[in-house]
Amino acid sequence: MNPTRRELLAGVGVGATGFAGCAAPSNSSPQQSNSGYSEIYNAVVDAVVAIEVSNGEQGTGQGSGFVIDGGAIVTNHHVIQGGSEITVQFSNREWTEATVLGSDPHSDLAVLAVDDSITVPDPLEFVDEPAPVGEEVLAIGSPFDLSNSLSQGIVSGRNRSIPGPGSYLVPDTVQTDVALNPGSSGGPIVDLDGLVVGVVVANQGQTVGFAISAELAKRVVPELRDNGRYEHSHLGITMVAVDPEIATANSLSEPGGVLIVEVLPGGPSDGVLQPSVETTDSPQESETDQDNEDTPDDESLPTGGDVIIELNGTPIPDTDALSRTLALETSPGETVPVTVIRDDEEVTVDVTLGSRPTE
User: Fold this and answer.
1) What pLDDT was estimated at residue 278?
2) How many CB atoms lie within 10 A of CB 179?
3) CA–CA dist 90, 72 (Å, integer)
4) Which helix or strand (DSSP H or E) is residue 249 part of?
5) Is the pLDDT of residue 168 over 70?
6) 185 is a catalytic site residue
7) Active-site option among 104, 106, 107, 108
8) Partner residues linked to 96 by β-bridges
């Protein structure tokens, strides 16, 4: 039986870690130490593809993707959004047409299929556990249409919420300092075992980029591949993190939690959770909400609403935590306990989650 990619790379991570300064001194040259990256690259690159998308009069866009179990290809929703024709190029330079099996703007993920006559490479696998901050990672993709490019860095942050293609935030993204550029989107970020840590989604500068976490992708991708869509849990609220200023305005003993600003009429939380009823003048702006990044036109603070401090048994210190918990630990139709501070007392109520509206 042929060894798996994980077995082939079992010893490579140690060598690469040594190159990062964690191994005992040796007489190996820098070129020899560098070979760990080469072995990981060679084990992974065949499963990484370049993607070209024809958008009619808008011209041609491009991005990256990678093969998963069953021969499907993962990329970003924004890479293929609006495309009338999608073509995929494998590392052997072979091109083929692709069709969309499913696409989801809320997680910015999409899954493609290629013709059955194409022999696809062995798939990549997602990590079993989240990569910790500081772990070394590699990105392979097609930045600036330069296919099969490799860049290296570390996981520099976790549990970030970033704007998605629509009006919703993408939760639980992985922050990295790996060099990411136009065309990298949709490609994999892998650890030193060749396992996918995240799906590249955005770059915010030379040292700040983001990837959709493996944890979120493992929930969304199978549904997109098998059913064409994914349903996201929805509370039907807008919210703001409780910082010191909002805590003072609401007479809270300390910052922390999420203040409900509005409750969507007829939504899952209507009649169960209480929104803010008045505002206090302040230069503070609303930080974010479950559904989108929202900055009020006036300089005011919401007061009087419920403050969520726990959802489904998970502590909620801020808006990122609430978005992550909804995305990774709940499903539409599930009834979950929500603990709030209401009138200076802790109260637990049950909310039956809905599905996010289709954009």
Assistant:
1) 66
2) 17
3) 13
4) helix 244-249
5) yes
6) yes
7) 108
8) 88
**1-230: CATH architecture:** Beta Barrel (2.40)
Over the stretch 284-326, which tens digit does the pLDDT of each residue have?
A: 333 334 443 333 444 588 999 999 999 999 999 999 999 999 9
CB atoms within 10 A of CB 69: 13
Token representation of residue 121: 């490479």
Q: The whole model's pTM is what? A: 0.85
- Does residue 269 surpass a pLDDT of 90? yes
Helix (H, G, I), strand (E, B) or coil at 266: coil
More confident residue, 327 or 283: 327
77 included as an active-site residue: no
- Rg of the chain over CA atoms, in angstroms? 22
| Three-state SS at 71 | coil
- pLDDT one-digit tens code per residue, 3-14: 555 555 554 443
Length of the chain: 359
User: Which of 77, 78, 232, 234 does the annotation list as catalytic?
Assistant: 78
Q: Which of 107, 185, 276, 286 is catalytic?
A: 185
Determine the residue type at 317.
P
Could you tell me the two tokens for 217? 């992708």
Which one of 2.60.40.1930, 3.10.450.750, 2.30.42.10, 2.40.128.20 gives the CATH number of domain 233-355? 2.30.42.10
Q: How many CA atoms lie within 13 A of 327 on its CB side?
A: 27
Q: How far apart are CA 171 and CA 186, in angstroms?
A: 16
Q: Supply 35's token pair.
A: 């070979």
CA–CA distance, 201 with 185 (Å, rounded to integer) = 5
Q: What percent of the chain has pLDDT over 90?
A: 73
One-letter amino acid at 346 equals E
